[in-house]
Amino acid sequence: MFNLPTTNIGGPELFVLEFGDIVTYFSPYTAALFVFALIFTVLAIVSRPERQVDFAFGGDAYYTKVVDPDLLRFQRFMAIACGLATLGAMVTGDVFNFTLFASMVGITNIGIVAAYRNRHVLNAAFQYGIVAMLASIPLFGGAAIVLASTGTLSMWELFGGAMAVPLIAKAFLVLGVMGEGMAPFYIAKAEITRAQGAPFILMVHVSSLLLFLRVTEIVISM
Amino acid sequence: MDVAYPVGLVVVAAAIIIGFTALVREKDDLHRILLTDLAEILALVLIALVATDLAEALILPGLVVGISELMAVSEVYIAKEGLRAPTGPPFRIEVMNSAPGILALILVAYGIVLSGFTGGVIAAVGAVFYFMCRGHTEQFELIETVSGYAWAFWIGAFFIFMFLPGYWFFGVMIAGGAILLKVMAKMSLVGTMRGGGPDV
Amino acid sequence: MTPNRSIITRISVIISRVENLTALYALLAIVVVVLGLVSLPFIAYQNDQLYEKTLDPESTLDPYDRGGVPFGTTPVKAQYPENSPYAGYVTAYLTPFSQWLADTTHHMGTTIVAHPGGIIDEILYNTRGLDTVVETSILFVAFGIASYLFRRDS
Questions:
Q1: Which residues cross the membrane (chain C) (predicted)?
Q2: A130: which chain C residues are within 8 Å (Cβ-Cβ)?
Q3: How far apart are CA B56 and CA B52, in angstroms?
Q4: Which residues of A touch C141 (CB under 8 A)?
Q5: Which among A79, A81, A15 is positioned nearest to A49, based on CA atoms?
Q6: Which of B50, B69, B80 sits opposite A133 (nearest CB)?
């Protein structure tokens, strides 16, 4: 069909779909991540929200928390969008395209947690929002440095080993994904998991984990 | 070019250090939003340093991502602080009764002639002005629907480009029309959204 | 804060406060940039770039002229030209009105560039169309968040 510089990109390629300059691909590694993301996206679509019960300590009294249907619909929408963004980030074959998908994961993550009325959770969502915004600087900056120093953004060219990608660009990419995926800040994630709506909150964790696995592959292969 | 690029990089690195140091020291949330917005320009500078047509094209997604995140985060800030739009006497001047129809018409028509991003912005200014003068409650739903359709058209145009490249002309026309609608809808929504008070 | 806390306790107290998250992340970024600053002067600009920028002050489309004749082939240095057989067509196409503008005056380049089929759109519409799809989706999602939060209170 057309000539790609390599047929062996992170293992034997299983399927290639070209969108102009952006050639998405499935290798065993990315296909495994893709399937994983797909399973959780389907789970987000079909699952019902968690119903939380608060117990009054030292007595028999308890009260159940009501799930607002509007909130439920909004969170489900965000979780599905987050799943789709993760799917895209897993299979894309272009560095800048990957950074865009990562930003989308970041913003949907904010959306999932920002829907609550709880001041505490909103505050945490706000702080994550600021970090996600900041993260777009190293993320896009890393992609721009890759483009400037190698003259291409396609992973098919970059993975060959013929191109020397500066270390700072790789560090920027990892730093950016850290910010978007909030992955190293798990301590503070407890603030978010305190809120109800388990299957959708789960999407935050799954997406950041998968993003990390993917950026590791990109940085190592470049 | 050979010397200019590393020099530019060093300048950007210095700017990142300055901007992020400010963020480390800043404790107030509102100021953090402003500083972050300022710092995001550095990402665009890094892309612009590449200085090709491709970089020109990549700046646009970078800019849009920054703006959308800013919009979402500031809305979270408002919800977090529980801020309310202040209520006061409605803002009324004579021109708001006589002008909206004709001015909005001119701006929207000119925007449609321009089309694309610029056209969308100009048409949106017309729409915002019209809603500002005439009230906007029932148009809200309509604009959102239009915006959704425009998004779908855009995706359709993308698939034409990718799978039926021979029909590129239709792709251009659909995408151009869709982006006009989209930018216009988004702009006028953003313009009227804060209208809790009586003045807008 | 009691004076005889260990250093680890102090650090973990700082880290556990969600308000310090931004500062922590900014600090991390500063560390990376400072370390990277040493290597920055050695990053060479690759002169063999895709979609190179050419400036032609004589053109009526200046500074956005990317060459090509309408409905004809235009040499565009795309990454995978095989994937975009009609690359360059979008760049070169001008609507009749903008063609008239281009023929009439030398000063409307910025206006003309805003048209569909205007000059900047080629890469975004065609060869890197997926980028734009993601970008518009991000805007869509952000708008969804903003309008949900806005409307919930009103």
A1: 21-45, 132-150
A2: 21-22
A3: 6
A4: 78, 81, 104, 107-108, 111
A5: A79
A6: B69
User: Is the CB of residue B49 less than 8 Å from the CB of residue B58?
Assistant: no
Chain B residue numbers with beta carbons less than 8 Å from the beta carbon of A145 are 9, 46
Residue C39 to residue A128, Cβ atoms within 8 A: no
Looking at the complex, does the CB of residue C19 fall below 8 Å from at least one CB of chain B? yes
pLDDT band at C154 (very low <50, low <70, confident <90, very high): low
- Cis? peptide before B6, omega within 30° of 0: no
The ipTM, to two decimals, is: 0.84
Domain-embedded: residue A105? yes
**Nearest C-alpha in C relative to B18:** C30
Residue A7 lies in a domain: no
Q: Dmax over Cα atoms in chain A, in whole Å?
A: 72
> Does the structure show a pLDDT above 60 at A1?
no
Chain A CB within 8 Å of residue B36 CB: yes
Tell me which of B19 and B194 has the higher pLDDT.
Answer: B19
pLDDT at B199 (0 to 100): 41
Q: Give the distance from CA C39 to its chain's centroid.
A: 25
Question: Between B68, B114, B166, which is nearest C142 by CB?
Answer: B68
Which residues span the domain enclosing A124? 15-221
In the predicted model, is pLDDT for residue A187 greater than 60?
Answer: no
DSSP class per residue in C29-78? HHHHHHHHHTTGGG-PPPS--SS-----TTSTTTTS-----TTS------
Q: Are A158 and A165 in contact (CB under 8 A)?
A: yes
Checking if the pLDDT of C51 tops 60, the result is yes
pLDDT in tens, B76-93: 898 888 877 666 666 667
For B156-166, the pLDDT digits (tens) are 888 887 777 77
Residue A10 within any structural domain of the chain = no
What's the structural domain count of chain A? 1
Note whether C147 contacts B: Cβ–Cβ < 8 A. Answer: yes
- The answer on pLDDT for B15 being more than 90 is yes
Please tell me chain A's helix, strand, coil percentages from 3-state DSSP, rounded to the nearest 5: 65, 10, 25
Residue A144 pLDDT grade (very low, low, confident, very high; cuts 50, 70, 90):
very high
- Total CB pairs under 8 A between chain A and B: 98
- State the helix-helix crossing angle for A119-150 and B29-48, rounded to 10 degrees: 10
B50 contacts A147? CB cut-off 8 A: yes
Q: Which residues of C touch A111 (CB under 8 A)?
A: 141, 144-145
Residue A3 lies in a domain: no
CA distance A173 to A171: 5
Q: What digits encode the pLDDT tens for the residues B119-157?
A: 777 777 787 777 777 665 555 666 667 777 777 887 888
pLDDT of residue A162 exceeding 80: no
The answer to whether residue A2 scores a pLDDT higher than 60 is: no
